[in-house]
Write a structure and sequence with these properties.
It is a single chain. With about 325 residues, this protein is α/β, with parallel strands linked by helices. The protein has 8 helices and 12 strands.
Length: about 325
């Protein structure tokens, strides 16, 4: 915490952290890895300020709460084209052959995993000739990614890679240099790239911890192992729902159900408030906390980020079975 961010001791940590990430995702050399402050929400604006000036418009694929917020932010900086129709509830990802993509878009934006709604893309959009921008904040390093399919990938740290307060940005070099004049230097991708992400004082402790997390992922089999574990963990929870024969209900279409965030209602499709409160109370008594669903959708939400073990997912699945048996009609 007290190291000078320009000292050789800290610079060694900084460089090693970035290199570890490059190795984990096989990031090509024509992509810059930036460590930036502002959080994921700040990136909603930063992406626009750095890229939208190319044509003045951008396409947004809104499949959940976070991509909706990103599109709303983007509308302050240029024309936003909504690629798919607006919906009251986010439960699916429409087939790409139904999308309305603009050939003049500076980029096509989507959120790979919607934490609130539990929707996760099961494919990478194919948008030839248009840079693809992806918010991977909540499933970053949980499965292999072909970085070459993207113009920009960004991820807030506070899910799979470290404490809140920093964002990883992976950007193809040819997309640098298009920032709007209003872009603050702290959000300018070009400035960050030219200064190796230390134009201003970086959050040194967070970056140190991120480096430790990257080492932990490597030690435990890399991104491929994280993916295999995520399938096992999420399958345990989804199977517990199936076995309960309608007592638990997940609103998300099966092909795009998230491996990271599993939302469900207890007692019925719309949920039984008293049963859900009892579920949370009983789960907390067994050491399982933060299972309450997001305030905008209610219900229950199990988050299965990389650090959650298979044994812990098994514990929740067993608890769900026990709770069902004790409360079934």
């Amino acid at each position: 915490m007290e190291m000078s961010h320009r000292s050789p001791e800290y610079l060694s940590i900084h460089t090693e952290t970035i290199q570890s990430l490059r190795e984990l995702l096989n990031v090509p050399q024509n992509y810059k890895i930036l460590l930036m402050q502002s959080g994921g929400t700040g990136m909603f604006a930063a992406v626009c300020m750095n890229l939208m000036g190319r044509t003045g418009e951008a396409d947004y694929v809104v499949t959940g709460s976070w991509s909706a917020k990103a599109a709303k932010e983007a509308a302050q900086y240029g024309e936003v084209n909504m690629v798919i129709p607006k919906t009251a509830k986010y439960t699916s990802v429409p087939s790409q052959d139904t999308w309305k993509v603009s050939p003049n878009a500076s980029y096509v934006y989507y959120c790979d995993n919607e934490t609130v709604d539990g929707v996760e893309f099961n494919f990478v959009p194919d948008v030839p000739g248009i840079p693809l921008v992806c918010d991977m904040s909540s499933n970053f390093l949980s499965r292999p990614v072909d970085v070459t399919k993207f113009g920009v990938i960004f991820a807030g740290a506070q899910k799979n890679i470290g404490p809140a307060g920093i964002v990883v940005v992976i950007i193809r070099e040819d997309l640098l240099g298009f920032q709007m004049k209003i872009t603050p230097s702290v959000l300018d991708f070009s400035i960050a790239a030219k200064n190796d992400s230390i134009y201003n004082t970086p959050p040194t402790l967070i970056i140190y911890i991120m480096g430790k997390v990257f080492a932990w992922i490597k030690k435990h089999g890399g991104v491929n192992a994280m993916y295999e574990n995520s399938i096992k963990k999420s399958s345990l929870i989804y199977n517990a729902m199936i076995n309960a024969k309608g007592f638990y209900h997940c609103p998300v279409d099966q092909p795009v159900r998230s491996r990271m965030n599993v939302p469900f209602r207890v007692g019925s499709e719309t949920g039984n408030d008293s049963l859900e409160q009892e579920f949370l109370k009983a789960a907390k008594a067994e050491g399982m906390i933060q299972l309450k669903g997001h305030r905008s959708v209610g219900g229950i939400r199990a988050s299965l980020y990389n650090a959650i073990t298979i044994a812990e997912a098994e514990k929740l699945a067993t608890f769900m079975e026990k709770f069902f048996n004790n409360n079934k009609v």
